[in-house]
Amino acid sequence: MFYKKKYLPLFLGVATAAGIFIGGKLNFSDSPDKLFSTNSKKEKLNRLIDYIEYDYVDDINTDSIVDVTVNGILNNLDPHSVYIPKEDLERVTENMKGDFVGIGVSFYTYRDTITVIRAIEGGPSEKAGIKGGDRILMANGDSLFGNNIIDGDIVKRLKGPINSKVDLTVYRKGAPKLLNFTVKRGVIPIKSVDASYMLTNKLGYIKVNRFAESTYKEFKKGLDKLIDSGATEIALDLRGNPGGFLSIAEQMVDEFLGKNKLILFTKDKRGHIEESYATKRGSFENGNVYVLIDENSASASEIVAGALQDNDKGVIVGRRSYGKGLVQREMDLGDGSAVRLTVSRYYTPTGRSIQRPYKTIGHKDYYDEYSERLDSGELLDPTKIEVADSLKFKTPKGKIVYGGGGIIPDVFVPIDNTLHNETLQYIEQYQFFDNFIFRQLDLDRHAYDGISRKDFIDSFEVDDDMVVKFQDYVNTQTRSKITFVAYHDEVKQYLKASLAEQLYGNGAFEEVINKTDIMIEEVIKLSETAH
């Protein structure tokens, strides 16, 4: 299987949840004996749980009580210290690892049957001969179709140990009989670099959707490809990126900063400071860089933006970032669950903490700050951004920067209300674009055979008839009646982008969407006027 990442602003809660994976570089100085020694507070909790288990009048699942207790404790700390139940830990770890073992297809459950959208290029299924549109009916003799089958069960049956084999029975439209394939499971990447291509003859573009273990390797591959294509400037798109591992952010920054430039420093409760410096191995130390951020760029994304801004390297473009300056470390709780606990704060090279205040407000209000930014007008007008003179800092070249709540861009770009309206976000959230395009392709998968990726992106146009069909489709899926009169062109663009992605794979969606992206347009203008 393959989990794709679309270009859309993420919901704030999702961004925050994913952003907590930053860190893992610090160690406790206390010994295990000291950390876990018995005391009256711990005994108090243990006794209460024992009383409930043995003496309470009704049968109670004490595991659930423990989960509630752990969550209650963490809720009294900071918004980014979180508990991960054992049933979620494998999925969470897999996502941040950046790959998993599987057969290598993206699929859609269509009319109670697994239907392949695309076989991942170079993956096990493509090598075995599986194509887009194929229906996978059976795996090792077990049925994979029917109303009772759910995606989670499908994933479990198709996953397995690396190099193990799975026998698939497949229906292919037009084939005279069912087809049989034997697929050897392999390592399947979960892409964290959505796109890497040239915007102009000198400006390369890379979009990174998170900072997983595999992200730096993907990023470096994309960066090298752009350098080989003649890029002397890079647009690094971190919009909607909720963060991830701190070490990956450090490696990425190192590509842009010269030797011994400070990337960041961290400070724990004991006042212990650890500093991170750039090395001499950076491959883009002399090129211009533009970092694109928005209100959902968090954690490791802010480390990258802050390090470059404070070193007077490049230009930060967009809107004020999320504002997360805390570092978490994952700790095993012994039963398959884990806690990610905040163990330090990080600071940008000038000494800024960009963590938003959280002690005086509840966690709900903390997560709801996007609404406050929207209501205040900050997303449309940079003068509405609140700054404090007490948190003013200077870069080596004298530029004024502020701490206290996110990275404030050097060049402000307002939110595009046309693309960020509730109707389009609702349609995208429920994958109506993808599902509709899949159905249209399934009618005739050879209709686009003669069109190259470049010709499609540059010249293909979605006609009005497809928009009408899409509107009818959406209205069959929802109770309310939706019309696209106000954003007809935007719907066409999203349909084209979804079609491009299903036809041509990774990066095609972004290439189409970026054609009319106002932040991309601003970066191209900056590039054209740069000396």
TrEMBL record:
One of its GO terms (biological process) is signal transduction. GO terms for cellular component: outer membrane-bounded periplasmic space. Residues 89-159 form the PDZ domain. Keywords: Hydrolase, Protease, Serine protease. Coiled coil: none annotated. One of its GO terms (molecular function) is endopeptidase activity. The keyword Hydrolase applies. Gene3D superfamilies: 2-enoyl-CoA Hydratase, Chain A, domain 1 (3.90.226.10), 2.30.42.10, 3.30.750.44. SUPFAM superfamilies: ClpP/crotonase, PDZ domain-like. InterPro entries: ClpP/crotonase-like_dom_sf, PDZ, PDZ_sf, Peptidase_S41A, Tail-specific_protease. The keyword Protease applies. PANTHER family: CARBOXY-TERMINAL PROCESSING PROTEASE CTPA, TAIL-SPECIFIC PROTEASE. Belongs to the peptidase S41A family. NCBIfam families: prc. This is S41 family peptidase. It comes from Seonamhaeicola algicola.
